[in-house]
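To whoever is covering the structure queue this week,

Two jobs came back overnight. Logging them here so there's a record in the thread.

Job A:
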Amino acid sequence: MLIAELVKRDRDSVRAGSFSVPEPRTLKETRHKMRKKLKGNCMSNEHSELPAHRLWQPTTAKWFGAVFGASLAYAVIRYHFAGDVPWSHFPLFILNKATSLAAVIFVSCSYLIGKIIRWYDHDKTLRLVVIKFCGLVGFFMAGVHAVFSLCLLSPAYYGKYFDEGGRLNLQGEIAMSVGVVALFFLLSPVVTTLPMMPKAIGGWRWKRSQRAGYVALALVVVHLVVLGIKGWLAPQGWHGGIPPVSLVAVVVALTPLLVKRKLAHDEQGGTTGEKE
């Protein structure tokens, strides 16, 4: 009897319009919205649980994609499309060009963030993470560039840096030796990036070791000038009128050096003005 009364009451409610049964389409839409909402909550929770000092995160991933992607695109356009380099040389020769340019950009940006790149002034933690990421990735790519260059180092690829006997000429030896020393100086700020180093060596020594990156950039400029000065002075030989990768890299490497000099000059001028 009780069951019969409940069934009768439900039928009366349906006839009276007190409630309506959702249509199949409405049910699908509701389920889709609920799944989307749950997925969004999961993603936001995962993102919020990421450590603040984690190097690989959405911001640094965008940096890597933008810098390396732009460097690779520049090398491909200049040497493959505008130039006559066969695609068979893409896996090593072209990647070496892109890696070298990306390395200089990353290292330079690590010294420009907070000075002229002010995108992260609102978040000090994120700014330090991006600086550290750019420095470490720049050093890593500089190491990859060194290995790639050793693999390619032959008269067949770089004939102008070798003499008739197949040995490096003066230009080639100077460029290679300066490049190795630059990589050595870049190792100092990389090692002192480790979390325990500021306390281990002291704040003053830590800051001095970080400045070794400027020495590395200055040596990179010398390395690039020795390698490419002759080609820079002959723009008629540029592929499609596009500047060589080495010329772009030297402009990028000079930027932090010039910015540092200007900031030091402004600071010295401000100190002198206060004393007067």
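Job B:
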Amino acid sequence: MSTPPERARRIRLAAAQLGPIARDEGKEDVVERLIELLRAGADRGAELVVFPELALTTFFPRWWTDRLHDADHWFETEMPGRATKPLFDEAAELGVGFFLGYAELTVDGHRYNSAVLVGLDGSPVANFRKVHIPGHERNEPWRPFQHLERYYFEPGPEGFPVWDAFGARVGMMLCNDRRWPETYRVMGLQGVELILCGYNTPIHYPPDPSQDVLAPFHNHLVMQAGAYQNGTWVVAAAKGGTEEGSDLLAQSAVIAPSGQIVAQALTTGDEVVVAECDLEWCRRYKETLFDFARYRRPEVYGIITAPHGTPATTEAGT
């Protein structure tokens, strides 16, 4: 009796990179840009389009304000709202899903750096709130550009769930989340096959400028390693270019479960890169080198969940 052929599970994905957004650029104008990128992805057969982190505004955490309420206009209190509904309507018309990063203000006053996953019919499927919040909490005017995410946002309390959507096990992360191996592994342990990511990454890092030249290398390094070590696709969309005087890293990319980059943006402006992703490719790694059930040793990993890593000591001769 012959073995039946493997069922093809393929999805065409797009990373929709944005160029700079000016401080005075209205959300309605930004949404028009997003719609153009969505259409460009649809024209190339994309079923799911990934937009950047904080895709509706300039990267406002670079500015200090004494009163948080003065920043409310950067935040969304509903999704979709008045400004974003045309994007949802266009997605439904095209039959294309999307991932969108935005600043969220909840009814009870919590502020999160969030993302929404939207299905082919234009309806929200899932929400994610950024877990690893970088930067600083206090005004540091010595910096050429501040990074006040820890002032504007709380860490997401839900961690890294995985959802069944678009025929895959889908997870989400935002910007700094991509630098932490735990991000990928927590989703990997839930069988993730597709991780969606948006980022706004300043190239200049004031606490240690020696890292500036390595920013492009580090950006891809962490995502390629996370994809490979967990047997998953990663689709990452940047906001790039010079925004309000700050240089942002571009390099939007689609990364295979092998860790290879299969598509990458070539500019720092509005650009769509598309790749056809074979979800069965994930199994080649999940069932061989990274067969978690067979090879992982969780009994010796306890220190990973300690609040601060404490070096283990072993007495000589033991």
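Note for Job B: Confidence is low (pLDDT under 50) at residues 1-5.

Please reply-all if you pick these up so we don't duplicate work.
Q.
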